[in-house]
């Protein structure tokens, strides 16, 4: 390339680099195109009416507007927490159409990208932050959930906000960010009630870590955040105790999920089935009488008996049968757990179901997440003492959450919502890891190698061998 053209290219790249650096100060502007793109996806793909789990969330929101959450006994319904219905309630009160409520998913997803960028920038610089935020922005699983009024987009937002406040709690200190982190984690728990158990287990781990003096200051900060989060959930737990008489009762959906996860039968991989055993779940299905007959043969007698009871008793009986299956066939439970982890990563396998071509994409994306996480775990273990407080707290909460998710009927949705944590963690590691150089050390060109360097190597020509003998 001529020197003049090379200089022009250099000036162009330098100008572009400086522009990106200046724009990095305004992440709300940088990522604004994604807000419109997300909105476009929702308008293009949203069904005109509510369907699937949307109906349940909307019904819970209507219940809240009428002064209660669950119907009274014996029709108690605590299938999910009140976090998302609380968010929907104002929209339902003003009779906002389904499309416009769902468009809020675009806002949640956009804000999750912005706050993830702001969090990573605090610990890794704007270049790594930009790359990680863009990876979240274009994540295909997140985009696929946008047109559906489910909790996922809102959960992305809460997780990114929790990361940001946890980092600020470490960087700037003070009680404000600690309280904010706790409040956000508490509302996340009300949205995804599995985090109720995550809070308790994480709290026990942090209390145990107090025995080590070097961790005392940071563990106390983590304990305060977890306690604030738990305090947010106390009114809900008081409500569930009032209507069920059970202490620390989060919901009645876990029993059925654990039942399917513990299935001891061959060709069943722990994915959830509807109680009428018609096998009409995602993905494309065997809709044959043979498969329905197999499900009925394996489960009909147990499920028929359980469904004759009220919802809370059903949950209890499902858990009893699940524990019986696990004790009776622990190796099958381990295999189901393995299949659950595979489904979170690769959306595969499903019981009695055809698999479609989309799984190839899932395998590619899931493999990238898997091996990046494996590398991250190795680096984290090697450099554990250098890992900062917010990263340790986030890894603890996320690790416990994923382990518990694997023990229930799990899907990519369970993994996807903590992707911001994985990106934040990997971004931090990248910023604090020395550059990996894959080039050979020293001379690499054959023309630069002298004859003396080839001594003892049996690749000489006859002439070279003669010269050496002389």
Question: What features would you highlight for this structure?
Answer:
single chain; mainly alpha; disordered C terminus; 470 residues
What's the SSE blueprint?
Elements: H1 3-23, H2 27-30, H3 32-45, H4 53-65, H5 83-93, H6 98-102, H7 104-124, H8 126-137, H9 140-145, H10 152-171, H11 175-191, H12 194-209, H13 216-244, H14 254-261, H15 289-307, H16 311-328, H17 330-346, H18 358-382, H19 389-406, H20 412-416, H21 419-431, H22 462-469
Helix pairs in contact: 3-7, 4-5, 7-8, 7-10, 7-21, 8-21, 10-11, 10-19, 10-21, 11-13, 12-13, 12-19, 14-16, 15-16, 16-17, 18-21, 19-21
Task: Report the average pLDDT across residues.
Answer: 89
The number of distinct helices, counting runs of at least 4 residues, comes to 22
Helical content (DSSP H or I, runs of 4+): 55-70%
The total beta strand count reads 0
Quick overview:
The protein has 470 residues and is mainly α. Helices cover 68% and strands 0% of the residues.
Detailed description of the structure:
The protein has 470 residues and is mainly α. Among the domains are: 32-177 and 358-431, no CATH class; 254-342, no CATH class. It contains 22 helices and no strands. The chain has helices at 3-23, 27-30, 32-45, 53-65, 83-93, 98-102, 104-124, 126-137, 140-145, 152-171, 175-191, 194-209, 216-244, 254-261, 289-307, 311-328, 330-346, 358-382, 389-406, 412-416, 419-431, 462-469. Helix 12 (194-209) crosses helix 19 (389-406). It is globular. It starts with a helix and ends with a helix. 36% of the residues are buried. Residues 451-470 have low confidence and may be disordered.
